[in-house]
Amino acid sequence: MRKSQKHIAVSILVICVLCAGVLYFYHHPLYVQYQKIVLNKEFVCPENQNSDAYNAYLYRFIKFYADNYPSMKLNDFLTIRYNQLVQHNCTTTLANIANNDSGNATTSSDTGDTTMGEFSQSPNNVSQ
User: Which is more confident, 14 or 70?
Assistant: First the structure.
């Protein structure tokens, strides 16, 4: 094997190892936790942003949980989302939820045992 062929072989090996490392790191618990922190820092109350920005953030938020916690129950996800609204003091959105809670809000009986993985597979739920 010539010297140039060895360099090519080594280069390909290094690229393969780096790609495998990146794929492993993407789902590593520390990186997932980091992504949660970033999502939380980027959060802006829905009433304080335009609909395009709101939809873009909501898409990333849902996709993050669907990708990293596919077996999470939809009710648990909704609780996380609600707690995020409370944590950031989104009073207008929380008031809207409270006003709609009398009959139009999603309840645990509506979502049952639906998981984030199942929810994200429905074409009407996560699309952009």
Answer: 70
Give yes or no: residues 63 and 113 share one domain: yes
Query: 60 lies in which domain range?
Result: 45-128
Closest CA to 128 of 52, 38, 77: 52
From the CB of residue 116, how many other CB atoms can be counted at a distance below 10 Å? 24
CA 77/CA 111 separation, integer angstroms = 11
Q: Are 119 and 74 in contact (CB under 8 A)?
A: yes
Q: What is the pTM of this model?
A: 0.63
Beta-bridge partner residues of 115 = 73
Q: What is the count of structural domains for the chain?
A: 2
* 64-86 exposure pattern, b = at least 16 Cβ within 10 A, e = fewer: bbbebbeebbbbebeeeeeeebe
Each residue of 19-37: pLDDT tens digit? Answer: 665 555 556 788 889 899 9
Q: Are residues 78 and 106 in the same domain?
A: yes
